[in-house]
Amino acid sequence: MLRYQLMDKAIQPATAEPLHTINLERYSHLTAAEITTQYSYSHVLFVATDSGYIKKISVLPKFEKTCIIEIWKPEQNNIISPIKTIGYLKETVSSIS
Questions:
Q1: Is the pTM of this model over 0.85?
Q2: pLDDT tens digits for 4-19?
Q3: Radius of gyration over alpha carbons of the chain, in Å?
Q4: pLDDT tens digits, 31-78
Q5: What spatial distance separates the first Cα and last Cα of the chain, rounded to whole Å?
Q6: Contact 70/47 with Cβ under 8 angstroms?
Q7: Which of 3, 45, 69, 79 could form a disulfide bond with 57, CB atoms 3.0-4.6 angstroms apart?
């Protein structure tokens, strides 16, 4: 019987509580990035909501908390449409949808 390393054991959480929670909102897509700053690095999450918004969330490792940095509302012709894909472009340090 073949045993696959990723399926052998469950992934354990890094913290006892979820890093980010919010009431009455569902996320459809998520991408994560590690961004180098002047003195260290920072983990950033880009999440797409079911209502068509993209949130840029920074993870504060010292406090095991998150901070919402920006909320984007991508639209075409003043119409908000659902996000179909989301990704991160390291070269330009930006999110695409």
A1: no
A2: 555 566 777 777 888 8
A3: 16
A4: 888 888 788 888 888 999 988 889 999 988 778 788 999 998 887 777
A5: 41
A6: no
A7: 45
| Token pair for 96 | 């695409």
For residue 8, the surrounding DSSP H or E stretch is helix 5-8
Distance CA 56, CA 47 (A): 7
Could you give the CA distance from residue 63 to residue 65 in angstroms, rounded to a whole number? 5
Task: Give residue for tokens 């989301």.
Answer: 86
**Could you tell me whether strands 94-96 and 87-89 are parallel, antiparallel, or unpaired per DSSP bridges?**
antiparallel
Provide the pLDDT for residue 43: 86
C-alpha 60/C-alpha 42 separation (Å) is 8
Residue 72 belongs to what H/E stretch?
strand 65-72
Cα–Cα distance between 54 and 51 in angstroms, integer?
9
What is the number of other CB atoms lying within 10 angstroms of the CB of residue 49?
17
